[in-house]
Amino acid sequence: MTMTAKDWKRRLREEGYIELDGLRIELSLDNTFLDLDYIPRVLVYSEETGRWHVLRNHIPKGKTLEESWDNAVKVLEEIAEGRVRPDLGEPRVEERLVSVLRELEGSL
Questions:
Q1: Whole-angstrom distance, CA of residue 87 vs CA of residue 53
Q2: How many helices (H) and strands (E) does the chain have?
Q3: What is the pTM of this model?
Q4: Which of 6, 45, 55, 105 counts the most CB atoms within 10 A of its CB?
Q5: What are the b/e assignments for 75-92, b being 16+ CB within 10 Å?
Q6: Ranges under pLDDT 70 in the chain
């Protein structure tokens, strides 16, 4: 069964992660040093590197947890549409993420 653009966004929001072609894309929370307020993060595990990579692109903090997750998915949509380049600190993983997201959006 092929995942559509709507499916991957829904699954990511509902389950907190998706696994595709050697990548695991996961929603997470992080807090800054000495700050009790949490901010949304996107983590990407690459089977190729065997490591987790943190998406360093700015994700606006929402007023609620749900709004924060929505903002994280919007950043991934912007990456898929080519409006934003991912910053993972690993060019090969960045290119793979772009490729996977573009395939999901149907814009090869």
A1: 9
A2: 3, 4
A3: 0.87
A4: 55
A5: bbbebbeeebebebebee
A6: 1-5, 32-36, 107-108
